[in-house]
Write a structure and sequence with these properties.
Layout (H helix, E strand, L loop, with lengths): L3 H17 L11 H19 L2 H5 L4 E11 L2 E10 L21 H9 L4 H12 L5 H8 L3 H8 L6 E16 L2 E13 L5 E9 L4 H13 L4 E7 L5 H8 L4 E4 L1 H9 L4 H15 L4 H15 L4 H9 L1 H4 L7 H7 L3 H14 L8 H15 L10 H12 L10
Parallel strand pairs: 3-6, 6-7
Antiparallel strand pairs: 1-2, 3-4, 4-5
Length: 406
């Protein structure tokens, strides 16, 4: 226990430091002796409880103390931790190999990492704010604490039915065996029956392909998804077939914007403005019948000059034109994969400072933390969802599982 004289001295020093703006709980802080005494007393009590009769009967007893430096948001503090002869004492207040006191800095570190700061920047930030140094290894160990969360999140149970799902991939660099390689991050963004967004799947593979998308879709089914009403995809070859083999009743809408971009690659620049003027009459038509008439007109005007482009629209028309079967509110949602691409843009704001990730898990870890921040805005249903879900229910009947008998 501190003597009255020591307490008075501490109070005087505390007042002076408070006036000067000096941290009271830092290494030289006025309250440091009190915090040190509290921690050491608690550890001594833990050791006394550990060395019960059964431990003493096995010959275990105290074996001195070891000095240890711990870090907290109040600065560094050196404490003496009790040891036992058989080294089986497991303190709870300050665990073995723990260097962050009570983990009060860990959430802050993870939060900074999730906002895209590098370990070097975090280390500098901690040193500037808290006047302490934390190694990259310790920072990495702290951020690794989210790995079990990532794995649990990836395997969590899902809803039985999702009305609308967008599927797309984004690409990153990862170091493997001393070489930088490309990784595809497969993302599945969905709207649930209440109209709220969820990222229901995130997977990493070496390349994007329909074969791996089949594995993604199979995993969704294994996690409880029985039906998807509408799936929106890019124009990847074999993608629609992969969906149909897993969810055979799903209506597939391939991205019109992707189709337009691919078409313009094969139209010379001097023709692009005129070509797009005619093409807009196709995908912006009020009805599917009008769109098909305009597609015929497009062929008449441009078919001889750009036969491959026209043929691509014709051969993919069934899946490009699915959105014409719906009201404008739904059309705007499904005719393109902009919803998931918008999500990707938000993720890249966080990951843009990274060159190549040291591992696949490091990549997943950062994207997972970014998702946590992004999804905070997904708490409310989409605008006009009450109208949209009724239209879907009328179209899909029992598959939508909505009771309209109000």
């Amino acid at each position: 226990m501190m003597t009255p004289e020591e307490i008075a001295e501490m109070q005087t020093k505390a007042i002076e430091q408070f006036k000067n703006g000096t941290p009271l709980l830092g290494k030289e802080g006025a309250f440091a002796p009190m915090l040190k005494q509290f921690i050491e007393s608690a550890l001594e009590a833990e050791m006394s409880a550990h060395l019960d009769d059964s431990e003493r009967e096995r010959g275990n007893k105290r074996n001195g103390r070891r000095s240890k430096t711990i870090k907290s948001e109040f600065g560094e503090l050196e404490i003496e931790t009790p040891q036992d002869r058989q080294s089986n004492f497991e303190p709870q207040l300050v665990k073995k190999r723990q260097v962050i006191l009570a983990d009060n800095l860990a959430p802050k570190i993870i939060g900074l990492y999730g906002n895209g700061m590098s370990l070097r920047d975090i280390s500098s930030h901690i040193e500037e704010i808290y006047d302490m140094q934390i190694s990259h290894d310790v920072l990495s160990q702290i951020t690794d604490r989210v790995i079990p969360e990532v794995k649990a999140w990836q395997s969590r149970a899902l809803d039985a039915v999702y009305p609308i799902v967008w599927l797309d991939a984004m690409f990153y660099k990862v170091r493997e065996d001393g070489r930088v390689q490309t990784r595809s991050v497969y993302n599945v963004l969905a709207i649930d029956m209440s109209g709220r967004k969820h990222l229901i799947g995130m997977y990493v593979a070496q390349t994007e392909g329909a074969k791996f998308w089949l594995q993604v879709l199979t995993d969704l089914r294994n996690r409880g998804v029985n039906d998807i009403l509408i799936a929106c995809t890019d124009n990847l070859t074999g993608f629609a077939e992969a969906i149909a083999s897993t969810f055979p009743h799903t209506e597939i809408q391939t991205c019109v914007v992707h189709q337009i971009r691919n078409s313009l690659k094969y139209v010379v620049s001097k023709d692009q403005k005129a070509f797009m003027k005619d093409l807009k009459k196709v995908y912006r038509a009020d009805t599917k019948e009008i769109a098909e008439d305009e597609l015929l007109n497009l062929e008449e005007v441009w078919g001889k000059k750009y036969p491959i482009v026209i043929k691509s629209w014709q051969s993919n028309w069934d899946r490009l034109s699915t959105y014409f079967d719906y009201q404008p509110e739904i059309r705007r949602m499904i005719y393109t994969t902009n919803a998931v691409e918008g999500f990707h843009r938000q993720v890249r704001k966080v990951t843009k400072t990274k060159g190549a990730f040291p591992s696949d898990m490091a990549l997943l870890k950062l994207i997972y933390l970014a998702i946590g921040n992004i999804s905070k805005k997904w708490t409310q249903p989409l605008p006009n969802w009450s109208l949209i879900i009724q239209q879907l229910c009328i179209r899909f009947g029992e598959r939508a599982k909505i009771d309209l008998n109000f």
